[in-house]
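Structure first, sequence second, as always.
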């Protein structure tokens, strides 16, 4: 090979432009991968928090239904109704 070819200005400019193009493509690829990983992470985080909120709301619903059942049982209890009626009479 001719060493003059490697020392010429055209070769240096073309080689540096190829290196710059390769580096720009690499940086754009890495940034696209990082953005994709970030969006996937945000979606997973959102799904996690939504499921946590859903679990909490379900447990609150269960507690409210239990409280409703307890109050309806108390209201329909004959013993408590008789006791309340006796207190009203006295």
């Amino acid at each position: 090979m001719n060493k003059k070819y490697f020392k010429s200005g055209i070769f240096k400019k073309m080689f540096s432009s190829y290196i710059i193009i390769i580096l720009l493509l690499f940086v754009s690829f890495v940034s696209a991968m990082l953005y994709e990983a970030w969006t996937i992470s945000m979606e997973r985080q959102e799904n996690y928090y939504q499921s946590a909120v859903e679990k909490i709301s379900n447990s609150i619903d269960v507690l409210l239904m239990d409280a409703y059942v307890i109050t309806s049982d108390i209201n329909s209890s004959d013993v408590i109704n008789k006791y309340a009626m006796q207190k009203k009479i006295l």
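Margin note: The CA atoms of residues 67 and 73 lie 10 Å apart.
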